[in-house]
Amino acid sequence: xPLHTKVDETHGTAExxxxxxxxxxxxxxxxxxxxxxxxxxxxxxxxVRDELMLDGNARLNLATFVxxxxxxxxxxxxxxxxxxxxxxxxxxPQTAELERRCVNIxxxxxxxxxxxDSESAATGCSTTGSSEACMLGGLALLWRWRARQAAAxxxxxxxxxxxxxxVQVCWEKFCRYWQVEPRLVxxxxxxxxxxxxxxxxxxxxxxIGVVAVLGSTMDGSYEPVAEIAAALDDLExxxxxxxxxxxxxxxxxxxxxxxxxxxEWDFRVPRVASINTSGHKFxxxxxxxxxxxxxxxxxxxxxxxxxxxYLGGEMPTFALNFSRPGAQVAAQxxxxxxxxxxxxxxxQLTCQRVATYLARExxxxxxxxxxxxxxxxxxxxxxxxxxxxxxxxxxDLSERLRLRGWLVPAYTFPExxxxxxxxxxxxxxxFSTDMADLLLADLRAQVAALxxxxxxxxxxxxxxxxxxxxx
Length: 471
Ligand SMILES: *Cc1c(COP(=O)(O)O)cnc(C)c1O
Known about the structure:
Helix 5 links the parallel strand 2 and strand 3 (181-185). Helix 2 (72-81) packs antiparallel against helix 9 (327-364) and helix 3 (93-109) runs parallel beside helix 9 (327-364). The chain folds into 2 domains: 1-55, no CATH class; 67-471, Type I PLP-dependent aspartate aminotransferase-like (Major domain) (Aspartate Aminotransferase, domain 2), CATH 3.40.640.10. The chain is of the alpha/beta class. Helices cover 36% and strands 15% of the residues. The structure holds pyridoxal-5'-phosphate. The site of pyridoxal-5'-phosphate has 15 residues, from helix 4.
């Protein structure tokens, strides 16, 4: 979350402005301190709603991967569960049971192997999102590596994690917070994500694991998990180093099982130790839920597990948080029941159809070149083929689309490809072909307007705010 600074009233606007209709509120309402008295609930509701009016329209937000619409029945169910705390396993045993079923559903969808007994079976849990799930996955890798180093009586001082420069920021966070060296494999023109050989080339005895991303946030492309694993198999044959893979399937974990059932990216690849996903992305639940599953008990060191009271016994838990809302887990289970395999498939397929349609139309417009076309995740990234002579940039286009309410982020690629600036569109459930046509019409109109401008357009936003988009 953004870090916020304390405001002393001498530098800020002191009070909220109360409409005369709400004359029941006679006391001042300070902005940065708790008001001295209560106010009627309808006035408080109106004040907060008014403040929120300038938030964007979530349905026009093509930047986010996160769910912005659920069915009324799911909303009702969530509102009934708002008061449930996930950690109170004893008080809410059935919420715990629904979490257990969701973990099982994902373990099956991701082909977790059948274990000889329940002690050694795949395990998993819910989290607040993929970020927390990635922290847990990374910690398991770190603990396993420390145990290996201890067994070999070698130093465990300088762990590193190998991944593509395109990873989501949560992996840089993991590395900084737990003091692991991030070994980022840079992108190259024509290679926008991690591949096998460059990953294996950066591994050594201090490598705790390799992260493969199923669905890069930069362009939606799938990293070739099986190829990365094969390169690590080869490394093991040559050097004896046995390096596990964690798959960050924040988006793809809920897309590939339905749209690419034959793609081997999951526990079918023996080197894959753990997989995370965001229930609140293509799992189609409102923000606040992620999942992680480990292949087997050996992939999750016992030291990391805490036991909480549960129906007179103990329940093993692994989490960074303690209290957490239970509504999202109930909603995830609702979606599994409501949609079934076919329903999820139909929704993801519809997103993919819209994404590939947008890609074809955008490629045909003339000034653009596609970097991805929606055939992996329903995401497309495109750039100006000739930004020098175009006379305008993708940032100009992004700003002008925003005038109509569309949020289409523009950003530059990381290190090594910083001159590549792209626009990215994420197609989510509810973005129809009709809406795509409206977007295409606006994009065409803005391209034409910018082309007609005799000189470089004046940015609508101050320079500092133009690249504010973060993944
Ligand atoms: C979104 C995303 C994350 C972070 O997930 P949250 O659920 O937002 O915490 C991590 N990795 C990838 C690849 C993502 O797309």
